[in-house]
Amino acid sequence: MMRQIIIKHVKKTIMGALLLLPSALLQAAEITGQTLTLDENRGNCLLCHQIAGSSNGGTLGPELRDIRHKYPDRKLLQQMLWDASSLNSHTIMPPYGRFRLLSTDEIDKIIDFLYKL
Amino acid sequence: MSIGNTLSIVLLALSVLIPHAAAASPYQDMEQFQYYFINRFGISAVDDYAFGSQAFDPKALIAAKESSSTVKHIALIEQGRHLFDTPFSNGASYASCFRNAETGLATDYPYIDAITSQVRTLPLELNLCRSRNGERPLTYDSGDMLNLQIYLVSRSKGNRINTIVLDEANSLAIYNQGKRFFYARRGQQNMACAHCHIDHSGKRLRDRVIPPALGITSRAPMVNDIEGNAVSLHQQFSRCMQRMGAKPLELQGVEYRNLEFFISYINNGLPIQPNGTNH
Known about the structure:
The structure holds 2 protein chains of 2 kinds. Chain A has helices at about 1-30, 35-40, 65-70, 75-85, 105-115. Chain A is elongated. In chain A, helix 4 (about 75-85) crosses helix 5 (about 105-115). Chain A is mainly α. Chain B is mainly α. Helix content of chain B is about 45%, strand content about 5%. Chain B contains 10 helices and 6 strands, in the order ααααββααααββββαα. Chain B has helices at about 5-20, 25-40, 60-65, 70-85, 120-130, 145-155, 170-185, 195-200, 235-245, 255-265; strands spanning about 110, 120, 205, 210, 220-225, 230. The longest helix of chain B has 20 residues, at about 5-20. The N and C termini of chain B lie far apart (about 60 Å). The interface between A and B is medium-sized, with 16 and 15 residues.
């Protein structure tokens, strides 16, 4: 009897996990550079920057425009997003990579988005 | 390298570091802090900073000076007055603990209590008064606690902040703990209070104008004239912490009280301006 109950619970758990898996994968795949840039719980770039097409951007940092021209060196921009304090110790830019707020892939997606601005 | 050479290098290093490590006195901090704001924004009337971000906008400043308390703000004051005057179960009231409530007592706080060697704030004393009279303490984010403060602060309008740092080790240690908190980076945003409220005050975080640190203690608790709710100084600290991706600390805990003590001291001389809002 006990064995049957345990098997039933294990089956339920596995089924539940299988049901959730596709949506989780889909969700991960759908996170775009734009979402990562604007989401308050991810890049949250609007906290300090104005971005064309988005309202309520802050003014602590410069407006994010012509980024491809301002930062043609993609690696430098990656480094800035990973840990801007490595370039300027007085910066108030959050160290997204060093603090594990964003992964390398996510930073790349943000740069792809910023290069379109 | 000889011991003598090593010692010379160490002494040389210390002579460079000590002026910074020893830092300025509290009075020098206060002078530099207030001078910075007067210089940076060209607002020579330092009292205008009691109006917060409105000091940056001449039209908004005039409007703020001419405006009177809103109906909602007055209602909160009256609720606070009623609570203050209502006797406890033992027949005593808050007046037994706060004898100068009518003439204004907001500028008596914060101070360092000689017995406990800790910072005492107005909310803390309100609860101590309750405990002494056999009443349960109020939570620091409760409406009653805020309304009591709003009432008492309203009686202090125009009184000037006068926080005292005694020239003794404990007072200076508490002051410096508050100062370190203010300048320490924290949270996922890796920013310090000073980054926003000194360096970038007047700019915007999203759509919110960042109020200057000068004047911040003149307007607490802050009453939102539109929604009619109030926010204490420590709740403001917690909101900032959350925005910076840091875990908020305990309201009226030692860290926040020491921070309040530091901020209050560098705001010395400014008037209490309870009608000011955080627009």
